[in-house]
């Protein structure tokens, strides 16, 4: 009897060990830790690892356009109800605007309570912000045409919607859908193999960040960083958590469900690296292909909750740093300006700083040169922005799917997400 128990224990231990060492999340976490260690102990070598992280993200980006295109075309052509497609699009944009306004407001509120800008300027790391301030000064305002032309995700989204609608009127629709369905399986199959490289991407991204910018740059801006991370957590667990709770779902269960994507974003500092896999995960969860295809790509351009929080907090931080008093009307103006300009902070490295510079220029009270104090620690806050963005878009997809009766999870998934 004892021998049997021992054998059973050994089998359980082997089973646990096998699950652990074949779990992608485990290896991504190990890679992040290794990247931090290398960046701290050998910064010169760590900086050279940038090519590893960048190459992985570039490979993932190759999948983004075909996955968005195929998902949307198959979703719309399979739905049949074009009025419903339009309703989902409008509902998504309205939801995005409401939630990002909450994000902007909570960023300003927490920054006023904690006052992260009340520190000694002389101890801050100063870098050259001219490339961002000049870019802001050169533009007369936010250019929607330029934004669209520089945003591949939106371009693919627009083309896919047109083709998806057109297919509904094509007599040989079923044959085309069959071909596109096979193509979709091939693309997602290829993505599954590429994701095995995720630990390398996370290692390269984290090693470069620590090696290039150094943990010592965090000390002077530690209060700001702590405030940003705290605010992101409040937004995710209170605002987004309450939204899911309304639908009898749990934010904690959802975060557990997408833990691989969150760790990948943490390692690479890019929410784009997890875009294809989060779309697949949401479909597996029970959201319809059409809702996932419409909400996620649009959300990556218009539902940047983490970016909105950071931008609003950065403005208040700089106002406090320079002892600039902002009236209630001016704070409302900041929210209004950022509601528009924050939409231009998607997809392009450094675009957030250009948006921030444009906002400061529009206010005419806070020195634009203050950006120099933020550049050093910005890279360490980009992870929080990217993670909050991807969680926000995942929740948005579930909400739109639930309200459109397009959420049909399997038995295991619904039990995993319930409160």
Automatic annotation (TrEMBL):
<keyword id="KW-0769">Symport</keyword>
<dbReference type="InterPro" id="IPR001991">
    <property type="entry name" value="Na-dicarboxylate_symporter"/>
</dbReference>
<dbReference type="InterPro" id="IPR036458">
    <property type="entry name" value="Na:dicarbo_symporter_sf"/>
</dbReference>
<keyword id="KW-0812">Transmembrane</keyword>
<feature type="transmembrane region" description="Helical">
    <location>
        <begin position="59"/>
        <end position="80"/>
    </location>
</feature>
<feature type="transmembrane region" description="Helical">
    <location>
        <begin position="309"/>
        <end position="328"/>
    </location>
</feature>
<dbReference type="GO" id="GO:0015138">
    <property type="term" value="F:fumarate transmembrane transporter activity"/>
</dbReference>
<feature type="transmembrane region" description="Helical">
    <location>
        <begin position="20"/>
        <end position="39"/>
    </location>
</feature>
<feature type="transmembrane region" description="Helical">
    <location>
        <begin position="92"/>
        <end position="114"/>
    </location>
</feature>
<feature type="transmembrane region" description="Helical">
    <location>
        <begin position="334"/>
        <end position="357"/>
    </location>
</feature>
<dbReference type="GO" id="GO:0005886">
    <property type="term" value="C:plasma membrane"/>
</dbReference>
<keyword id="KW-1003">Cell membrane</keyword>
<keyword id="KW-1133">Transmembrane helix</keyword>
<protein>
    <submittedName>
        <fullName>C4-dicarboxylate transport protein</fullName>
    </submittedName>
</protein>
<keyword id="KW-0813">Transport</keyword>
<dbReference type="Pfam" id="PF00375">
    <property type="entry name" value="SDF"/>
</dbReference>
<keyword id="KW-0472">Membrane</keyword>
<feature type="transmembrane region" description="Helical">
    <location>
        <begin position="228"/>
        <end position="247"/>
    </location>
</feature>
<feature type="transmembrane region" description="Helical">
    <location>
        <begin position="190"/>
        <end position="208"/>
    </location>
</feature>
<dbReference type="InterPro" id="IPR018107">
    <property type="entry name" value="Na-dicarboxylate_symporter_CS"/>
</dbReference>
<dbReference type="GO" id="GO:0015141">
    <property type="term" value="F:succinate transmembrane transporter activity"/>
</dbReference>
<dbReference type="GO" id="GO:0015366">
    <property type="term" value="F:malate:proton symporter activity"/>
</dbReference>
<feature type="transmembrane region" description="Helical">
    <location>
        <begin position="152"/>
        <end position="170"/>
    </location>
</feature>
<dbReference type="GO" id="GO:0070778">
    <property type="term" value="P:L-aspartate transmembrane transport"/>
</dbReference>
């Amino acid at each position: 009897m004892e021998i049997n128990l021992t054998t059973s224990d050994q089998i359980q231990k082997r089973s646990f060990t096998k699950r652990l060492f074949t779990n992608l999340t485990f290896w991504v976490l190990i890679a992040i830790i290794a990247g931090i260690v290398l960046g701290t102990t050998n910064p010169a070598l760590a900086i050279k690892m940038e090519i590893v992280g960048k190459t992985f993200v570039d490979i993932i980006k190759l999948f983004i356009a075909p996955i968005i295109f195929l998902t949307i075309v198959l979703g719309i052509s399979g739905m049949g109800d074009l009025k419903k497609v339009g309703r989902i699009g409008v509902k998504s944009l309205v939801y995005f605007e409401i939630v990002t306004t909450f994000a902007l407001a909570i960023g300003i509120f927490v920054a006023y309570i904690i006052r992260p800008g009340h520190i000694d300027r002389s101890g801050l790391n100063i870098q050259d912000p001219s490339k961002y301030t000049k870019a802001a000064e050169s533009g007369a305002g936010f250019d929607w045409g330029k934004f669209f032309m520089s945003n591949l995700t939106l371009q693919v989204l627009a083309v896919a919607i047109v083709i998806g609608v057109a297919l509904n009127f094509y007599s040989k629709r079923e044959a085309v859908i069959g071909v596109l369905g096979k193509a979709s399986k091939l693309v997602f199959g290829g993505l599954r193999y590429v994701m095995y490289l995720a630990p390398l991407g996370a290692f390269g991204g984290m090693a470069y960040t620590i090696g290039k910018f150094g943990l010592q740059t965090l000390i002077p801006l530690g209060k700001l960083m702590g405030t940003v991370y705290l605010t992101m957590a409040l937004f995710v667990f209170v605002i987004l958590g309450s939204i899911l709770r309304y639908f009898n779902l749990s934010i904690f269960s959802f975060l557990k469900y997408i833990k691989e994507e969150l760790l990948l974003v943490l390692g690479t500092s890019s929410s784009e690296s997890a875009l294809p896999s989060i779309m697949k995960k949401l479909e597996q969860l029970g959201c319809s292909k059409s809702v996932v295809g419409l909400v996620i790509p649009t959300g990556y351009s218009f539902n940047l909750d983490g970016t909105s929080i950071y931008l609003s907090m950065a403005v208040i931080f700089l106002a406090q740093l320079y002892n600039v008093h902002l009236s209630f009307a001016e704070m409302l103006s900041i929210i209004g300006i950022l509601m528009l300009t924050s939409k231009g902070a998607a997809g392009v490295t450094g675009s957030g700083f250009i948006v921030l510079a444009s906002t400061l220029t529009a206010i005419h009270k806070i020195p634009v040169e203050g950006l120099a104090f933020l550049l050093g620690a910005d890279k360490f806050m980009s992870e929080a922005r990217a993670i909050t963005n991807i969680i926000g878009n995942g929740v948005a997809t579930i909400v739109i799917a639930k309200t459109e009766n397009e959420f049909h999870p399997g038995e295991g998934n619904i039990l995993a997400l319930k409160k």
